[in-house]
Amino acid sequence: MKATAPPAAEAQSPRTRQRLLEAAGEIFAERGFREATVREIVKRAGANIASVNYHFGDKERFYSAVVAYAHGCAVEKYPSDPGLGKEAAPADRLRAFVHSFLSRILDEGRPAWHGKLMSREMADPTRALDRLVEESIRPQYLHLASIVRALLGRRATEERVRLCALSIVGQCLFYHHARAVVTRLHPQVKYGPAAVGRLADHIASFSLAALRGSAKGAGP
Amino acid sequence: MKATAPPAAEAQSPRTRQRLLEAAGEIFAERGFREATVREIVKRAGANIASVNYHFGDKERFYSAVVAYAHGCAVEKYPSDPGLGKEAAPADRLRAFVHSFLSRILDEGRPAWHGKLMSREMADPTRALDRLVEESIRPQYLHLASIVRALLGRRATEERVRLCALSIVGQCLFYHHARAVVTRLHPQVKYGPAAVGRLADHIASFSLAALRGSAKGAGP
């Protein structure tokens, strides 16, 4: 049987691996983890089942690799602290974080199926999300939390840091999750690169004003 | 054929209408508008196709009625301005709005399938969303915008009011949309009624501090 035949040199190539990741991303985004079949993916990738076994193992590990791959592409394109070191002012680091995070989640070509795949994962999580949180989301969260802590001052509790960090993340993610409503409610809102810069400026300024107010004890 | 037979008195009753809405909500939330069949819904509701025709018309209008029904239940349970008139202080009106909005989107029994139905609608919108935006979401948005305008002062532009209102909505919706990540990242975060009060206090305080900072010209 084809599925148990030893993979040929082509099936083991990095090029095949890449084609499998791209085809799998499209199909998993269209149908979801449970409905999609490895058979359909290898057909679209012009590969065979043996190549999936060779590169990824079973369907669950294959899917997890696809989720990690998509996140990796996005983070590589938009790093959280672009060109800024730890010695930069916290306000500048916050602006850089927001700009980068928003660009990453609103970029349609990151790859194109990434947004839909993540929406599915949020609505109907699989074990791939556990891994993604530990390997990719938590480090980014800790990076943001360190900026927020620097802005709030050392008297801020862990809970306050967490609530403020999630208020910042929530403002950004909203434009992705609620895009269908935003574009109906406000057809004038644009999602191109220039608009992302404007949105990021607003979210960073709004959040900085909130954090300064909180640091002064304006919070509850 | 059953489907074209004149509906019996039972099929035309408000009780049947209610059973159809509940069964349809569950099934549309499970499978999505396109995959779900009216046949399956009437079976679960213990009704017949003629009763759907009688109460709703075609599948699209049936679905739209289900989406509107779910929103209506949630808004009725958690009105946007609970017990506060237009003469209340804008900060109190903002606190009331945030508390009510957050309670509404985090209440699991509103009905239980409402959250999943809305997540599907966001990821893959149908024409039901157009109607929902005009009939329900836009009035709520305008209510929030009037509070934000009162807090920002009359010199604030329409764009600034919109950006600030969406920053507030985004912080709330995040706890629904990204719940799968929040509970993995912070297992200590709770979603019960007491926790909702605490979250709402934070979001309202964070936003009030941001709006006061903006009103003073701290924004860009």
Mean pLDDT of chain A: 89
Main sheet properties of chain A: none
Instruction: Give the chain pair forming the largest contact, with residue counts.
Output: A-B, 52 and 53 residues
Tally the helices of chain A: what do you get?
10
Order of helices and strands of chain A: HHHHHHHHHH
Would you report the number of β strands of chain A? 0
User: What is the helix content of chain A?
Assistant: over 70%
List segments of chain A where confidence is low: pLDDT < 50 over at least 5 consecutive residues: none
- Termini separation of chain A comes to 67 Å
The oligomeric state of the chains shown is homodimer
Q: What structural category arises from helix and sheet content of chain A?
A: mainly alpha
What does the overall shape of chain A look like?
Answer: elongated
Compute the gyration radius of chain A: what is it? 20 Å
Strand residue content of chain A:
under 5%
